[in-house]
Amino acid sequence: MVVPLLVFLSGGLILYLTPNEYQSVVLFEVEDGPEPDEVVALVRSNEVISRTEGLLGLNERLNLDRETAARELLSGVRVYAEKRTGMVRLEVTHRNKEIAKEVAAELPPQLMAYLLENVESVKVGKIRDWDSLILEARDEAEDRAVVLAKLERVHGSEPGGAERAKVERARRASILSDGEVERLSAMKFSALAAGINEKPHLLIHTAPKISQTPVNPKMKGELNELAVTSLIAGLICALSLPYLMELAFPPRIGRVRKEEPVIDL
Q1: Are 33 and 25 contacting, i.e. CB atoms less than 8 angstroms apart?
Q2: Which residues on neighbouring strands pair with residue 25, listed in sequence order?
Q3: I want to staple 237 with a disulfide (CB 3.0 to 4.6 A). Which of 4, 14, 41, 93 is the partner?
Q4: CA 10, CA 16: separation in Å to the nearest integer?
Q5: Beta strands of 15-165 (E only): which ranges?
Q6: Strands (E) located in the chain
Q7: Residue 5 and residue 13: Cα distance in Å, rounded?
């Protein structure tokens, strides 16, 4: 009976010493941005987690190095995509109430900062593409203008005969080249103006609150598994051992030997 009792008590002691955890929940949505499933992956990405950990200074508050603090933060983050509404549910669990709330409040903005940086990077790439096209068109327009200037210098601006056709063709080519520069510049402006409205927007549907009572999250990690296993095993052993001992060593009931009477001679 001693061993099962010790196993049972050790499991109870582990559960008793395990610190309480508190949960903060926030519902949010990213408009004109990635799909909800992609948002879920991005929230748990190393980039977003590291940004949040650094901003909140969790390594100093928890007395951990930054990598360990980021891993601990990630271990308490659960993210779910709600297919019906398109919203994302973020649950942050931590033994510190304030940290749970702060992380839940800061993860969505850090996700947006990461997304906007990527949007700006794409925009810069598009601007460079437009600038390259416009530069090529300007070079072409300058070449056409040089050809026209040479012809007009030799034959005049209004020549007659066969030279007149050459000058007119060069003039049309120069005008078309200038028009191409203007067209590309206008397209670049329109693309940039449209890009302003294509930026993702963050909508917070429920702000995170501090959990006032501990939560009982799903069992996770070897410690809780060991505790529960110890409790169950100890209880089963404690209840079944007497019965098993009785089956293994049944009581022996024998006949009582009668003493023969002593006859005095």
Answers
A1: no
A2: 91
A3: 4
A4: 10
A5: 22-31, 77-81, 88-94
A6: 22-31, 77-81, 88-94, 201-206
A7: 12
Find tokens 């007119």 and name the residue: 168
Does the pTM surpass 0.85? The reply is: no
pLDDT in tens, 195-247: 555 678 889 988 887 766 676 544 444 445 555 565 676 667 666 666 666 66
Could you say which architecture CATH assigns to the domain 15-118+200-223? 2-Layer Sandwich (3.30)
* Residue 21: DSSP 8-state: B
Residue located via tokens 């930026």: 199
Write out the two tokens for 219: 């069992």
Angle, helices 66-75/46-56, rounded to nearest 10 degrees: 110
Residues 10-65 have pLDDT tens digits of 555 444 445 678 899 999 999 888 889 999 999 999 999 999 999 999 999 989 99
Coil, strand or helix at 81: strand
For the chain, give every domain's residue range: 15-118+200-223, 119-197
Task: Give the span between the Cα atoms of 94 and 52, in whole angstroms.
Answer: 15
DSSP character at residue 210 = -
Query: Residue 215 carries which DSSP code?
Result: B
What are the CA-CA distances from residue 41 to residues 2, 18, 79, 105 (Å)? 50, 30, 8, 18
